[in-house]
Amino acid sequence: MPRAVRRRDGAGGAPGRHHGRLRAARRDEPRPVRLDRGGRQERVSGQHGARPLSAQAAALLAGGVAAGLVAGTATCTATQGGLLMGLTGRCHGRDPALVGWFLAGRLASYTAMGALLGLLGSAVKLPPQARAALLVVAGATVIVYAVRLMRRGRCAAPASAEAPSRYRAPLLGAATILVPCGVTLGMEMIAISSGSPVAGAAVMAGFVAGTAPAFALLGYVLRRISRTRLARLAGVVAVAAGLWTVGSGLSLAGWIGGTPPPSTVSGPGKQTVTVWATRDGYRPAMVTARAGVPVEVVFKLVDQGCTGTVTIGGRDVALPATVRLPPQPRGSLRYVCGMGMYSGIINFS
Fold first, then answer.
1. Which neighbouring-strand residues pair with 330?
2. Which of 100, 117, 41 is nearest to 311 (CA)?
3. Which 3 state secondary structure label does DSSP give 87?
4. pLDDT by residue (tens digit) across 95-125?
5. 283: helix, strand or coil
6. Shortest CA distance to 43 belongs to which of 193, 152, 154, 144?
7. Phi, psi torsion values for 264, nearest 5 degrees
8. How many Cα atoms sit within 13 Å of 196 on the Cβ side?
9. For the Urease accessory protein UreH-like transmembrane domain, which residue ranges apply (predicted)?
10. What is the Cβ-side half-sphere exposure of residue 44, based on CA atoms within 13 angstroms?
11. Rounded-to-integer distance, Cα 121 and Cα 27, Å
12. Smallest Cα–Cα separation from 199: which of 31, 27, 64?
């Protein structure tokens, strides 16, 4: 009897309840990530047991919807909602249909990207520098649309004089995949880790479905405002949002606020610093470490949001995680969230 009991709880039998609780606890621990001198990323993690594909896809679909409703609504509408300015102020009555086509294009592009990420992994994921350039372009596009709205003012032209291309709305919606918000980056990480095109497509499609009500409401509000005297005020707000998006792109790329390290030193030992990722930024925002000594940066996640993905050493890292850096020269190492909104600095001295 003792041997039979041991076999049942061991590797050859079904795990007990305490093993399930242990695995659940381990999933919440920071996952080690190693960045070498070339900027390549290695994640050290355990292998989890496989689950049926249909159950995995259903779970990821539900998780994507929840993430879109709870965490993605504010960040994604702030980053991508400005593109809806290209569909407002029309003098015909098809604006509701245009917003629907915008959402359909967004759903198609996100689902396709999720399938590619699940199939090919991070090989098809945009690097931070390319993402930063797209943020700058998107911000400039929003500013152009906002200026057009302010100059146009109230609608006085006949419907046929200003009919947009039938492809504009779905193309603008599909283009939002190129300007991901912070929560979108987290969904992309999940799609990559799923290792399945079906599961990757499910989590991204669920995320779009969760954010769809906010985009539909924003499109409705913009459509109504564009036909009133508040159009100029909406244009001013959109210009501010476009400038904010451009600034986020510049911050993400390190084109502003960066401090290059001047010289290289070396030394023995190892050190650890801890950074907490909150919805208001990284705490502490500035930490100090010894130059020339390997350092482990332990990122602990407090709140879901933009700071849940950090860009450090030219790579995106999903939190919680432990980033292992090789010996650094004297100077400052800057890291930012996935949207370039919040940043932190590690001073090496």
1. 263
2. 41
3. helix
4. 578 889 999 999 999 999 999 999 887 677 7
5. strand
6. 193
7. -115, 135
8. 15
9. 66-244
10. 8
11. 21
12. 64
Residues in CB range of 213: below 8 A, 6 or more apart: 69, 73
The residues near 118 (Cβ < 8 Å, ≥ 6 apart) are 191, 192, 194, 195, 196, 197, 198, 199, 200, 201
* Cα separation, 207 vs 215, whole angstroms: 12
Say whether 182 sits in a helix, a strand or coil.
helix
Determine the distance from the C-alpha atom of residue 295 to the mean position of all C-alpha atoms in its chain, rounded to a whole number.
26
Of all helices (H) and strands (E), which one includes residue 80?
helix 73-80
Gyration radius of the chain over CA positions? 23
Query: Which pLDDT tens digit goes with each residue over 37-88?
Result: 444 454 444 444 445 668 888 888 998 898 888 766 777 887 788 788 777 6
Helix (H, G, I), strand (E, B) or coil at 24: helix
Collapsing DSSP to helix, strand or coil, 41 comes out as strand
Q: Please determine, for residue 257, whether its predicted confidence score (pLDDT) is greater than 60.
A: no
Tell me which residue of 254, 247, 125 sits closest to 186, measured CA to CA: 125
Per-residue buried b or exposed e for 315-349, using 16+ beta carbons within 10 Å of the residue's own CB? bbbbbbbbbbbebbeebbbbbbbbbbbbbbbbebe
Q: How far is residue 235 from each of residues 84, 95, 242, measured CA to CA in Å?
A: 12, 18, 10
Domains of the chain: 53-253 (no CATH), 260-348 (2.60.40.420)
Residue with tokens 């969230």: 337
Give the C-alpha separation, 156 to 79, whole Å.
31
Residues with Cβ within 8 Å of 87's Cβ and at least 6 positions away in sequence, in order, are 95, 98, 99, 102, 164, 168, 169, 172, 219, 222, 223
Residue with tokens 């993905």: 309
Token readout for 330 is: 């004297």
Q: What is the pTM of this model?
A: 0.64
Bridge partners for 297 per DSSP:
273, 323
Nearest to 148 by CA among 162, 132, 160: 162
Q: Within 13 A of 14's CA, how many CA atoms are on the CB side?
A: 2
Residue 287 φ/ψ region, left for φ over 0, alpha for ψ in the -120 to 50 degree band, beta for the rest: beta
State which amino acid sits at residue 298. Answer: V
